[in-house]
Amino acid sequence: MGTTKPRPAGRNSIAQTQALPDKTFIIDNGAYTMKAGYAPGFPPPDDEETALSACTAIPNAIAKTRGNRIYVGAQIGTNVTDWNEMLFRRPVEKGYTVNWEAQKEIWETSFFDEKTVRSKELRVAEPEDVTLIFTEAPNALPALQKNADEIIMEEWGFGGYFRCVGPSLNAWNEVQSLFGDTLLQQPGAAISPTECLLVVDSGYSHTIVTPVYKGQPLQRGIKRLDLGGKHLTNYLKELVSIRQYNMVDETYIMNEVKESVCFVSNDFSGDLEQTWKGNHKHGQPELGDGVVVDYVLPDPNGGKKGFMRPHDPMLGTKKRKAAFSGGAEHLSEDVLVLGNERFAVPEILFTPSDIGMKTAGIPDLILQSLSVLPTGLHPAFLANVLVIGGNSLLPGFMERLETELRQIASAECIVRVRRSKDPIRSTWLGASRLGTNKEELKKVAVTRQEYQEHGSTWVGRKFSGAL
Amino acid sequence: MYHVEVVPNSTTSHATPGWTYVPDKGFDPAKAAIAPSLGRKRGIRDPARTDVSSRQTNAIVRHLAELDRENHRDVAISVPARQLKDAAGRGTRTKTTSNVRRILQSQKTFRNHLDDEEAALAQAASSTTASTAAQRLSLNKITKSSSSRRSSTPATTPRPDPATARSKKDLPSPASQKPSTTDNTTSTNQEHDSRDPGNGLIKSQHDNDPLLKSYTPTAPSERIMRALLSEPPLTYNASRAGPPVTRKSARKFCCICGYWGKIRCRNCHQRTCGIECYKVHEDSRCGAFF
């Protein structure tokens, strides 16, 4: 039995059926940030704010600055002052944890090494006494799943372990209030998943539509669009580099520019007309007033952050004047003027053909996902579309998605598209609510003992639902 | 002496080098974004059978690969060395197993893993071609596009397509029905949907009229749902999005300023919005590269 490995003292060395540890630690291992923290005890807090206070988003990367200094995980958020020419190494590729060498280093610094762990809420001192819930993107390669299982159970040796498809965990969230439905759940009862939920997860590496039925994904309906936040940032970077400054090495800064200026247009051709330079020529007042903005780039020497402000067409003149009169107020700042880039960049999520991709946009993706499911399920899924992931925070995203989905969906169905209150940590929150339901967790998770007895292949089959 | 045997009549099983008939599976989401559908030289400049030439396709593929990059240039960032902390931090933990060592030392990228899996699937496919047709069917399931997969899986019951359901509704309408009444039916249907049932509905003699009945499909049975839930996940490539349902012609943008691309460069086929941007393009970027 499992007595070959030394057990921590104070535990019965006689092999008994081991129960899952009480504490549950959740890592939603995203490509850009990992969302981690302990699940609350039962009953979970009603207020989402308090529930989410246990969850921290940590950059999932090893970064190298201009000065060849290397920062790992949470250090990136706090220790770095100079963001120029920052380079990143990310262990998660295309949404799947691939490089465990880097991932182990980030996990060690963030959760296991007591010298570098930020807070005691994130410290995993004794993995043997902790159940780990680890999320993965749908349709993962079996080889990568096996790698994850083996390294988690053999390197850290968690007492309990559950690997599951990330988007499906959102069904455990309290989505009824989001959609304005009456609460069916009795207060005090164990938490159960929503019956039908269509999760649209638009993250860093890709956008995935997952139909979730009673907390489990309907595998045939999972559809993926290989466009995400990374592509938007790179596209914006490319456009700006062609039109204004060379920003090809400034991934981090362009990501901040994207987050502060980009929006999803609900009237694409109208906005495009507004920003056309030809319109300014004819002595008309600024037509693109609402759309064209200036972004002042961050100045690491002055310790200033970048920010957005309304477009100032006289900026060039002012600069020249200031140069003559000696005032250095405007001289030091570099400004990007952003016009149609603001909405043409996120537009590729809805119309991938704009960059030549012959695939469907997000609204079509939802219909493609539904097309392989029985028609009887369509009304339930269309009425419960939950959007998560960082891209959904772009202004106008939700309105556009709801409008386009309404247009192409069957007229008999009600279409309701809602964004989770915290779209980035929504999956973590769902997992934490699953963590409070010990009965349910016991059914799906494996213990350390089971892993040692049956091995990783068995665990893989268990998580895929074959056992 | 006559020797009687059954000659295999399937074209896929014989392994003649050269050429063979292959079923046209239509759109393959696995390849559409990556591989150009034409030959290398045929259709370099002119779109022959598809709507873009192979040069353009290659440029698009390169562009997409560019957008997928993490950093602009290739860099190797090594994991910072930990000095002796490791031993102290691990404490009660067991020794590194061979699995862990193998995984940590693996420098495979996602692309490598995906290629491995594709190779494994292809091998499995070739080894089973000789065996039963049922197995072949299940393999086809992996590579076929989503629309055709639907029919090959026995798990789902035949169900009315929304479009056919609607046409069924329209078809039996007798000549006496006026178009205005059909308008009424749709509006009442919507009212039925939005209103809470049992909330004082107005009764009329038309309630049982088959023309006015709303054909909401029933929820699938428990057995179907269980079958759906127990399906294995699709492969990475099979879960990719298909072509757009609504076929609109692709929008073209000015490669300089991003406005509508109204004119096309004679040399390189890039689009610009007007004479002003065209001049910029001609002076700086028109390399006639594609």
TrEMBL record, chain A:
CDD domains documented for this protein: ASKHA_NBD_Arp6
UniProt xrefs under Pfam families: Actin
InterPro entries, per the entry: Actin (IPR004000), ATPase_NBD (IPR043129)
Signal peptide (from-to): none
Coiled coil location: none
Family listed: Belongs to the actin family.
UniProt-listed PANTHER family: ACTIN
Protein's name according to its UniProt entry: Actin family
Automatic annotation (TrEMBL), chain B:
Region (Disordered): 126-219
Pfam families, per database record: zf-HIT
InterPro entries xrefs: Vps71/ZNHIT1, Znf_HIT
Regions crossing the membrane: none
Zinc-finger in keyword set: yes
Compositional bias ranges of the Low complexity kind: 126-165
Biased composition (Polar residues): 174-189
PROSITE patterns named in the record: ZF_HIT
Keywords tagged on the record: Metal-binding, Zinc, Zinc-finger
Protein's name in the database: HIT-type domain-containing protein
